[in-house]
Design goal:
Layout lengths: L2 H29 L2 E8 L2 E3 L2 E5 L3 E8 L4 E5 L4 E5 L4 E7 L4 E6 L12 E7 L1 H19 L1
Parallel strand pairs: 1-4, 3-9
Antiparallel strand pairs: 1-2, 4-7, 5-6, 8-9
């Protein structure tokens, strides 16, 4: 093997390694997205409380089990229509902390105005601190 051939193989090897790193990172990122299923039916959402951590990306799967419904939140800039008997998927990243209302934004009958829920987005450090406190309490309880 001459020097020229060795350089070509080295470049190809580096390119393959970089490609594998990129593919592994992309697969890991895709796997780390949590899936949340929501059912919309007269006149409720289930679940009606969704807890997220700031920065978390989730895939909502929203099913309308009876009539046309909507899944909307003005504060989070979400406006979705879900046809009767169908489901839609929506990827969402929680970018700010707080409690945000979601509601049905497609008239679905007399109880339409009661069809609400909330998305609670908490700070990641706050969640970690609470988990640590829970572990500490469990350790103390075992003693």
């Amino acid at each position: 093997m001459n020097k020229h051939t060795t350089r070509i193989y080295r470049k190809e090897f580096i390119a393959v390694v970089m490609l594998l790193i990129i593919m592994t990172t992309a697969c890991y990122a895709e796997d780390s997205v949590r899936e949340i299923s929501i059912t919309a039916e007269k006149y409720q959402f289930s679940p009606d409380v969704i807890e997220l951590v700031k920065g978390e990306t989730v895939d909502f799967t929203i099913l309308s089990s009876d009539v046309n419904h909507g899944f909307c939140s003005k504060e989070l800039n979400i406006y979705l229509e879900v046809p009767a008997g169908e489901e839609i998927k929506y990827r969402f990243t929680a970018e700010k902390t707080g409690t945000f209302e979601f509601y049905c934004c497609v008239y679905c009958g007399i109880g339409h105005m009661k069809m609400k829920g909330k998305i609670i987005v908490r700070d990641a450090d706050e969640v970690k601190k609470e988990k640590r406190q829970e572990k500490d309490k469990e350790s103390e309880d075992k003693k």
